[in-house]
Fold this protein.
Amino acid sequence: MITAERKPFDEILELVDGHKKILVAGCDTCVAICLTGGEKEAEILASELRMKAQADGREVEVEHTAAIRQCEWEYLDMIAAKVDEADVVLSMACGIGIQSMAEKFAPKLVVPAVNTNMLGMPQEHAVWLERCGACGECVIGETAGICPVVRCSKSLMNGPCGGSQDGKCEVTTPEKEDIDCAWHLIWERLKAQGREELMHKIRPPKDWSKSSSGGPRKMVKEEAKPV
Amino acid sequence: MADDFEPEIIVFACHYCAYAAADLAGSMRLQYPSTIRMIKLPCTGKLEVIHLLRALEAGADGVYAAGCLEGECHYLKGNLWARKRVEHVKRLLPEVGLEPERVEMYNMSSAQGPEFARVATEFTERIKALGPNPLRRHGVSPHAAAREAARDVALPDEAPAGAAAPAPAAEAPAQAPTEKGPAA
């Protein structure tokens, strides 16, 4: 799923500074599942903003709402009335949802309350790991179902590199301790599958034009377009 | 700080321990401050971050959760979840201009009436030292706001023995039974 983290409170305050009517808009899909921007979190942020305003002696109205999915026009209609009343919308959706809101309700000011960070898999409750880079050309059929694009720190297509030690990546930061070497994992699983020969296959440089390097992407499914 | 400051403190109390401990404290004729207003939960694991925030936003001078002793939760880990949420709120409060000491998590068993009284006294003294919640507004009841915020999870207070049951709504086919059954 798409995961996001809430921005620091001070940054959120700056984004809504000077506005009198604030709508905190959650999204009840991906960001709700990753416990960052659903209706529950929107209500918490709204409460915090009201308390901060009152403590500072500012008169501010803060409401909260949530769309089932902020990234689809139809669901935005359901919160349009509340958006109309607000001076600024503080969206807690992923970057897609925030931009959908900004486009749908333009020129209404829509600002982000979260940082969208990855396409992640919940490894356990409240822990997510990056699993996909949406690179536009999936290679995991040859890499034992393990993505070297996001799980190898260098996105190597022909790994491992010399920094792989005892199955761990040389990249270590306080936030990213104990990163498994993706190519070590690939090797181990290829062995278990009896497909070791794939490790020796030389892969040419990846065509990054199919990723975000090629400009904004567009997908059209002609067979599904309305007639 | 005015010497006559009487804090209003919201207590989210677990049905299985702190609420019963309060009952015991009463039976034991123990003295504790009249500053606390209880909201009974089936387990402190039902306590959400927003419940604590709503109470403070409405002007409660302090809020604490009182759950079972660690390892003794009727639902195994509800009190541990509550502690995590209280600690999360402690991290949020300085950002909005409130002292983190205004929220706390306590643990006690149903047999610890004296502990219930001690906690109520200790927390009241702490809040008296901090002074009133700067968000307090005239005409707003923190207890009513906290109860409203927790309406989906709070249990009804037990009516004192012999108290009249609330009148049923005109269209209601029969009187809704209370937790202890209809008053005799």
The interface with chain A takes residues 48-50, 53-54, 56-57, 92, 95-98, 134-135 of chain B (CB under 8 Å). Strands of chain B lie at 9-14, 36-41, 62-67, 103-107. The domain at 9-149 of chain B is CATH 3.40.50 (Rossmann fold). The CA atoms of residues 72 and 153 of chain B lie 21 Å apart.
